[in-house]
Write a structure and sequence with these properties.
Elements lengths: L4 E3 L14 E6 L13 E6 L2 E6 L29 E6 L17 H18 L8 E3 H8 L24 H17 L2
Parallel strand pairs: 2-5, 2-6, 3-5
Antiparallel strand pairs: 1-4, 3-4
The chain binds zinc ion (ZN).
Length: 186
């Protein structure tokens, strides 16, 4: 499957106009390369270059997705996909809070993700605050499924591995750091 993609620094998307209220930030829990249409934009590695890949049409989430059955949309964040974009950094396969595994987050990948978020937030007028731009981990915290069990989510509650047990404050701290980095790119 071929999706539109750009080196992150050259990304000049022709974004459709419409209502977007929220942006949710994820990691894929796979390798650095494989991208997924559950998100609208994926930050991936192609050879050594960081790419932005548009894996889902933004317009399909510019509606109350739970009102109409059968119409496709990007299902990135449980119960929160209406008027919402999902963006994701590829990586973190087999990661644990104290060991990020063979495809760990890097500063360069996280910066690319924040650059994508900043551009989308500016275009759609989404405020850069914890009610409008949050990680999947923060959404999971609010909705009762934060954690490392298979049916739980902790992306992106840590930017670096740490031997301390994972706690809800990790999600809030990582969310604040990501929003600060997004502001720097806006
Ligand atoms: Zn997620």
């Amino acid at each position: 499957m071929h999706y539109p993609s750009w080196p992150v620094a050259e990304w000049q998307p022709d974004l459709p106009k419409g209502r977007i209220d929220n942006i949710y930030i994820h990691w894929s829990a796979h390798d650095y390369h494989e991208v997924f249409p559950a998100y609208h934009f994926c930050v991936a590695l192609d050879a050594e270059q960081i790419m932005v890949v548009n894996t889902h049409d933004v317009r399909e989430n510019m509606r109350s997705v739970y009102d109409s059955h059968g119409e496709p949309y990007a299902a990135h964040t449980r119960k929160r996909n209406s008027f919402a974009l999902g963006i994701s950094v590829m990586g973190m396969q087999d990661s644990k809070p104290d060991d990020f595994g063979p495809y760990p987050l890097t500063d360069e990948l996280v910066d690319a993700l924040c650059r994508v978020a900043a551009r989308l937030a500016a275009y759609y007028g989404v405020p850069i605050d914890a009610d409008h731009i949050m990680t999947h981990a923060e959404a999971a915290l609010r909705d009762g499924y934060f954690g490392t069990q298979p049916e739980q989510r902790w992306d992106i509650a840590r930017l670096k591995p740490d031997p301390r047990p994972l706690v809800p404050q990790d999600a809030l701290d990582a969310g604040e750091e990501l929003r600060a980095r997004i502001r720097r790119f806006s």
